[in-house]
């Protein structure tokens, strides 16, 4: 699946915003609705964890839910990263000059942070 | 949850509850207030992520915040696991019999799930 | 190491060695042959990586092989950890006293290091 | 550090090979000597692990060494990935067409595999 259309979600962005990757409109812009939906689901998982702790649920069952939340966060990060590579990094490559080096170094550092958690 | 005990200090559980690791009182019982505080902070981080996406913050800055949230979740999981080993697993060892094998296998599987995310 | 015992089967250690978890005989003692077999397989994977780099294999294919080696190392670590919990940590719990706290803290720190890589 | 010169290591590649990212000469080509050095060091760590198991070293000390080896593998993977993004992915962006989408998807899947181990 390499299309940049949001998965199963209509977005309200006007078509003319596409292709503008300036300061305020980043690679993930078109998937905004999908990203917010994912994050609200994760927020619900974290509230679920609070209920579990409050109701003295068995430790191992809480750990299973923590793993699910962590996985959901990593999956969100990967989607964001994919859009970043496709838009911001690819744009820097097309522009030419030194910017591509800085962008790739920055992206690699972000990936390193994601791997270390 | 209305308790105001500071994290890491003894909480006002009656002494007779200690040592009872039955259905409703698990290893993490005494740290309940601290756990809930941590989870509410993580919930705040997730809401912060929603604001960042909504305000079109730069992708890499969002990824940095995702890594911080994942790290906080992992740190919560590690504390829960430590308490589980100290109470549930150690209790099973003291009791003797086959239960220790089941408890250790269960804990190892939970650790494997945490490592894979 | 010349033993040929199949992995996971009882090895020819004298019975009197069992239960002695002193300096030289740790929890993983009985699985020694299996552990060495796993580690030699991982060593072979690392040599395979050197061949791949030397033969200019495509970066992504090398990354796939790195992930396989990392997974094999993590899986080895998890088995070692399971045996450590079952033997060293459980023994400390049975002995009573403060040792269990130290053992659990030490194991949790090792798990934290494994999760951060 | 964004220069593509190998860190502290003279490489024997003729200068005219630079810029040729065809089938047999990938992004990591210039760092070949450095990569092989890293991998040989990791191979040495794995052999060190075999010695530790053979000499019945304490489980936790073995786990610490496993974490160091995993970290070294991840660090090697990150360097390879950075070079891949800088060369193969950036080249696809410059070429234009659909290839950039395929390259970014492929790289993201490799990163996902690295994160899950």
Automatic annotation (TrEMBL), chains A, B, C, D:
In which compartments does the protein localize?
Cytoplasm
The GO terms this record gives for MF are: DNA-binding transcription repressor activity; metal ion binding; transcription cis-regulatory region binding
Is Ribosomal protein given among the entry's keywords? no
Instruction: Indicate the principal place this protein occupies in or around the cell.
Output: cytoplasm
State the InterPro entries in the record. Metal_Tscrpt_repr, Metal_Tscrpt_repr_sf
For the region Disordered, what residue ranges are annotated? 1-25
Q: Which domain of life is it from?
A: Bacteria
Protein's name according to its UniProt entry: Transcriptional regulator
Instruction: Give the lineage.
Output: Bacteria, Bacillati, Actinomycetota, Actinomycetes, Kitasatosporales
């Amino acid at each position: 699946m390499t299309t940049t259309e949001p998965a199963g979600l209509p977005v309200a962005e006007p078509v003319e915003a596409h292709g503008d990757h300036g300061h305020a409109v980043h690679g993930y812009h078109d998937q905004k609705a999908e990203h917010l939906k994912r994050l609200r689901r994760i927020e619900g998982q974290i509230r679920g964890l609070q209920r579990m702790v409050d109701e003295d649920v068995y430790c191992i069952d809480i750990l299973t839910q923590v793993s699910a939340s962590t996985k959901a966060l990593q999956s969100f990060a990967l989607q964001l990263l994919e859009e970043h590579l496709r838009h911001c990094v690819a744009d820097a490559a097309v522009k030419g000059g030194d910017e591509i080096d800085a962008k790739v170094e920055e992206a690699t550092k972000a990936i390193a942070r994601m791997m270390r958690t």
